[in-house]
Amino acid sequence: MRRQRGFLESLLRTLVFTLAALLAILVFAFVFFPFERLAPALAARIEAETRIATSIAQLDAGLGASGPYLEARDIQLRWPTGEQLALDSLRASPALSSGWLRGTPTLRVALNAAFGAFNGVVSAERLAGNFQRFDFAALPPEWFGPGGSPLAGAVDAQADLARLAEQWSGTLRIVGADGSLALPGSPVAIPYEKLASVLRLDEVGTLQIESLALSGPMVEAKAHGEVAAGYAGPATGAIAIEAEIARMDPALLPALAAYGVVLDANGAGRLSVSGTPDQIVVR
């Protein structure tokens, strides 16, 4: 009996040492593999799948606190329509998720670029994480139509979006400081010192503006409402937004008067926004 126990202990030690050696070999192979040689092939694969011309200056891999990761640096993207975007770095590592069991890879992603940063979880079914110092005005203006981005200035945001039946839904919380907001049809952008908003996109594509607060040297206002889904997709249909203006700079009153909106002598009052994104009506 004692001899049998000694044999089992010896076998167990051998198996442990063997597995440890194999693991060490795999770790060293992963860490020291020349991943930089794969950068052109990875860029070509991305271009073939998305039709976005891609170049990657450097590709590295390593082991971090969350496990193995792949990191690309100095990425240049060019869309067929001419828009260009540069990313300083993009790191991806496997994330713990049941999506892997459904054949949906889920990655923990860390992105850094001139227009901002993102850190969170990304898959074909979910996008959840934090945006830091994100400036929409630094993105290609063609993405926002003829007027470019209506929002300028760095904001932080928390996103939790899920995709169900080809439709994204979820919540986006935004806070910002020292930026500007261009109202549709307004000849100037309104500067603000503080911006806070909670937005929710529901399962049918309606964008619910649960709260929007704006304060600065020229305006102090709150708003809520919704933008329904339209023929062009989520939040492209009928608008129903109510705003309460606590204070408005007198210099902006003529622009509102052109819409037929009249505020009191202190620049205070209420207004309603309706119509569609293509034809906005303010009363």
What does this structure look like?
The chain contains 3 helices and 15 strands. It is α+β, with helices and mostly antiparallel strands and 283 residues long. The protein has a 15-stranded antiparallel beta sheet that branches. Strand 2 and strand 3 (84-94) form a beta hairpin. It is elongated and about 65 Å long. The N and C termini lie far apart (93 Å). Residues 1-5 and 20-32 have low confidence and may be disordered.
Global geometry: elongated
Low-confidence runs (pLDDT<50, min 5 residues)? 1-5, 20-32
Report the sheet-strand fraction: over 45%
Cα-to-Cα separation, first versus last residue: 93 Å
Quantity of strands, as a count: 15
Rg over C-alpha atoms, rounded to the nearest angstrom: 26 Å
How many helices does DSSP assign?
Answer: 3
SS content category: alpha+beta
Mean pLDDT: 81
Question: Helix and strand succession?
Answer: HHEEEEEEEEEEEEEHEE
